[in-house]
Design brief:
- With about 80 residues, the protein is mainly α.
- Helices cover about 55% and strands about 0% of the residues.
- It contains 4 helices and no strands.
- α1 runs antiparallel to α2.
């Protein structure tokens, strides 16, 4: 783990009841993106990111950030 801390989940659980909090959050956001609701997906991501940092001093995993990278990396009005 780096100094900043990263929440890492492999996402390879076969049993849905064995999912960790990030896997569950990622699954929820993945569904919203699939439905075309990027605004709601971003809202959930930002909420999760803030809570993770506040409670544990961590940041979402690279896999989670990558899921929303098309929406996070472009300033408003450039897409």
């Amino acid at each position: 783990m780096t100094g900043r801390g990263v929440c890492c989940d492999s996402g390879q659980h076969d049993d849905p009841e064995e999912q960790g909090p990030e896997e569950a959050a990622r699954g929820h956001v993945r569904g919203e993106v699939a439905e075309g609701d990027a605004t709601e997906a971003l809202r959930h991501f930002v909420s999760y990111r803030r809570r993770l940092r506040r409670e544990l001093g961590l940041v979402p995993s690279t896999e989670y950030r990558r899921l929303l990278s098309p929406y996070l990396s472009h300033p408003s009005g450039t897409r």
